[in-house]
Structure to design on (146 residues):
């Protein structure tokens, strides 16, 4: 019985020494790991500027070149209706890589849509561009912001 207790005490002290050795080794290895906080900050700043590019808002003014008012023709941005050509003109807010579409399900005639005005930060679509709309759902343009 005494020998068994002595054996357990030796095993216990061996496990304790091994654990202490591993903990000290882990702390020493952490000291050798090279971390450069400036690189992390720089990486975050690059991603933030990229995020700001995507979150910049622009404004586009569209005008229907046909002589009539077409309330049924809808303007969609990324598949969501943002308005119609009730007064032959519509102003929409867009972000980078938004897709502008024209939904013409009620009329069988070809329509012309003009980009009357864009905010200064919009690179594409260009001001005074005219698009012919022939189908029931046509992509007018993809927005590119500077």
């Amino acid at each position: 019985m005494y020998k068994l207790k002595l054996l357990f005490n030796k095993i216990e002290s061996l496990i304790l020494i091994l654990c202490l050795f591993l903990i000290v080794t882990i702390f020493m290895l952490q000291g050798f790991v090279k971390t450069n906080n400036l690189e992390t900050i720089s990486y975050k700043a690059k991603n933030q500027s990229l995020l700001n590019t995507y979150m910049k808002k622009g404004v586009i003014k569209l005008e229907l070149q046909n002589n009539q008012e077409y309330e049924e023709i809808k303007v969609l941005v990324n598949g969501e209706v943002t308005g119609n050509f009730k007064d032959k003109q519509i102003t929409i807010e867009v972000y980078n890589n938004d897709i502008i579409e024209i939904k013409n399900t009620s009329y069988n005639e070809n329509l012309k849509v003009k980009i009357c005005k864009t905010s200064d930060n919009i690179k594409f679509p260009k001001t005074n561009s005219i698009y012919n709309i022939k189908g029931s759902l046509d992509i007018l343009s993809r927005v590119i912001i500077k």
